[in-house]
Prior knowledge:
Purple Acid Phosphatase, chain A, domain 2, alpha/beta, single chain, 5-stranded mixed beta sheet, 23% helix
Amino acid sequence: MLIAQLSDPHVTTGVLAAEPAAGLHRALGTVLALNPRPDCVVVTGDLVERGRPDEYAALREIIGRFPLPVHLVAGNHDDRESLLDVFGGSPSLGGGYSAHYHVDHPEATVVVLDSLMPGGDGAGCLGEDQLGWLDGVLAGRPEVPAVVCLHHPPAPVGIPALDGIRLTDGDALAEVVARHPHVARVVAGHVHRAVTVTFAGTVLTTAPSTWRQSTLTMSADERLGWVAEPTGFLLHQVATAGCVTHLVQVSHAAGASCLF
């Protein structure tokens, strides 16, 4: 199974809306130009910039005609109620009215977690109830690979400013994931960079943003910023034997794209 992991589009409205929207549209067009085409797309959070209903309406306009399944993940810039108001009951949330859900594709289980913690400093949390739910979902299909998707990385990525606002109960998530060796990948966003980390007996990947990238700021006394590095996404080839991940550049590449 091929899964395209896009992340952090930060769609908005108004005078600053063009660049984030164009970045997401270009990335989706690049996904369609791949041969073979991916089976689905996962967007790992910060779907919009301020969590407003009009921003989710703009996001729906961008992905509404996209011909592949798109699974949406809530991030710290999102608003849970507004997300559910616009996309609840649609395939983009697994057909349900919750920001955590799972989709049983024939070749893999895609599990989406909701790490949004309203009113916080940008960090995320899953909580005992959701972790228990995850444990049950992973136990339900041990014969096929599973991909666990969330916004906040559950482990340090070596960038102090971002490590301070990662998933607060990452160790508890690791305990659940470690009990299920068929978890082929844990995928996250939030970092605006492509990072690979060993995690709970599997691999954690964060995807670059389809809009803008964060600086590689590995010193605690240096301020995190933005840099015009290439936008892109990750392509995960998931199989029973394991998972291979490719970085696909978008904004700086001369590759083909497709209209939709």
